UniProtKB/TrEMBL annotation:
This is Polysaccharide lyase family 1 protein. It comes from the Bacteria. It comes from Symbiopectobacterium purcellii. PROSITE patterns: PROKAR_LIPOPROTEIN. Residues 148-419 form the Pectate lyase domain.
Length: 520
């Protein structure tokens, strides 16, 4: 559905364009505002690190999303195909199907997408939905079968098949066929996963605003991929993307991988996030809800001693993504929530602000940070050690990270829930907290806990290196410190009390809290 008159689109609710020039601006001065009372001001336009972006030539560039979209590039969508078409901007006068240059031109133009109701990534457009069987053949045929994939890890069974083959006879040929098929399962799993990805992925181009209309916009069995530095989008540095007021139910991976070497007892690893941000800059994710929803991993079958994990991250940030603000979102009922940096070699600036978010009933990664200058301010964390998603830690100090935590509230229940539960040590050495709270009291020991956990991990690595007659990693020689070498280059306020921060978050975080109407 196309809005016919773009002049009438200048509605008051979507203040991301004009108000961003006034409320967030491109003010590079740092200012920690002292509140006159307990009330924290709610931001209605891009702020934090996303408002500090500069183009490659050094020119400040506001986060405006699809501001300035022509009438043809304003969409209302309620199905998978309509969303795909809107993201491709097929109604642009410059769009010509099959002409790569014309298609790219249209995708890079400003576009505004209103989202109505539930959209499913597995929707086949004919009243049916893709399932685990469908991905075995579409779009490319595979011989992958999850039961066979699992059986391929049974060494005794493989040895039995080999013995049958070696013995010869009538059963040898059948055994050889099965053994060959089992050995191909891991490779076929990759093709199967690519089939699922082709169906459920929605690639978000630069200069795009996506908004829920009402309170029921949802994405199920699909995910948004934000990667504008790819060739698909002409390696565009300035993504300029705004996503607000959407509920994302993380998609299930029907071909998760078992890694026996992941951790002390192995782990299942899934592929798809609810939203992934890769190598993109100048992105604002605001007032959204992220969850496993109807498909918690705790209900999955237990194999190799672990529940099969169908979900990866809720919102993962990788490949040097930069100048991001993640605000007023709900992250709930999930394990591996938000990772920043995919590995210890995934170096990047990762300047990211997390403000006003609710992190509820999560096992870990709220967030886990590698590299980066990450500002966590006025967020509310709650969970328990004995829940379906038992809390392991909240903030992960990852490799080369530099984390500033301010005015965050942590409320953890259950056996072993202590202030130290807040911090996970993963080769990070720089963490500073100002004025956060744990279980109703000031978190007075948080800075010392961070240093102690960092130091303990360093000592473990040094001892392991000495035992192996090797040099320890350079990170193990760093000074564990509460001194960080940066400060937020923007104006912000820190909550003065637990009640103020909880009220601020609970009243504002999550989808359905904004009042956005369709344009006339």
């Amino acid at each position: 559905m196309l809005v016919k008159n773009s002049r009438r689109f200048r509605y008051s609710v979507l203040c991301v364009a004009l108000s961003s020039l006034f409320l967030s601006g491109c003010d590079n001065s740092s200012s920690h505002t002292e509140l006159t009372d307990d009330t924290l001001p709610v931001k209605t336009a891009p702020f934090g690190w996303t408002a500090q972006y500069k183009d490659v030539d050094g020119t400040a560039a506001a986060t405006t999303g699809g501001e300035g979209a022509r009438a043809e590039s304003i969409y209302v969508v309620s199905s998978r195909q309509e969303l795909k078409d809107a993201l491709s901007n097929v109604r642009s006068p410059n769009y010509l199907a099959g002409d790569a240059t014309a298609e790219l031109t249209a995708k890079l133009e400003p576009k505004i997408i209103y989202w109505v109701g539930t959209i499913r990534g597995d929707d086949l457009g004919n009243g049916t939905y893709a399932d685990a069987t469908y991905y075995k053949t579409k779009p490319n045929k595979t011989t992958f079968d999850f039961d066979l994939y699992v059986k391929a890890f049974d060494k005794d069974y493989l040895a039995q098949l080999q013995a049958t083959i070696d013995a010869g006879g009538a059963e040898a040929t059948t055994a050889q066929t099965e053994l060959t098929l089992l050995k191909k399962q891991n490779g076929q799993r990759s093709q199967y996963a690519n089939n699922q990805k082709a169906q459920i992925q929605f690639q978000v181009p630069p200069n795009t605003t996506i908004l829920d209309v009402g309170q029921d916009a949802r994405l199920e069995e699909g995910y948004l991929s934000i990667n504008t530095l790819s060739h698909t989008f002409n390696k565009t540095d300035n993504s300029n993307i705004i996503i607000r007021n959407i509920t994302f139910q993380a998609p299930r991976d029907f071909a998760p991988a078992w890694d026996a070497g992941d951790g002390a007892s192995g782990n299942w690893n899934a592929r798809y996030d609810a939203v992934s941000i890769n190598a993109s800059k100048n992105v604002w994710i605001d007032h959204c809800t992220f969850t496993d929803g109807e498909h918690p991993d705790s209900k999955e079958q237990v194999l190799f001693g672990k529940h099969i994990q169908r979900h990866d991250g809720l919102l993962d940030i990788e490949d040097g993504a930069d100048y991001l603000t993640i605000s007023y979102n709900v992250f709930e009922e999930h394990d591996k929530t938000t990772i920043i940096g995919s590995g210890d070699s995934d170096e990047g600036e990762y300047r990211i602000t997390f403000e006003g978010n609710l992190w509820s009933n999560l096992t870990q990664r709220a967030p886990r940070v590698r590299f980066g200058q990450v500002h966590l301010v006025n967020n509310y964390h709650r969970g328990a050690t004995d829940a379906d998603y038992p809390i392991l830690y909240s903030i992960g100090m990852g490799f080369a990270s530099s984390i500033l935590s301010e005015g965050n509230v942590f409320n953890f229940q259950g056996a072993g829930a202590e202030e130290s539960t807040i911090i996970g040590a993963y080769k990070g050495s720089k963490f500073k907290d100002n004025g956060s709270w744990f279980n109703g009291a000031q978190a007075k020991n948080l800075n010392q806990i961070a240093i102690e956990k960092c130091t303990a991990l360093q000592e473990e690595e040094k001892a392991a290196a000495e035992s192996a007659n090797k040099a320890p990693g350079n990170w193990a020689l760093e000074t564990c410190t509460n001194d960080i070498d940066w400060e937020p280059p923007y104006t912000y306020a820190v909550g003065k009390s637990i009640a103020a921060v909880e009220k601020y978050v609970l009243e504002n975080a999550g989808a359905g809290k904004l009042s956005i109407s369709l344009p006339d």
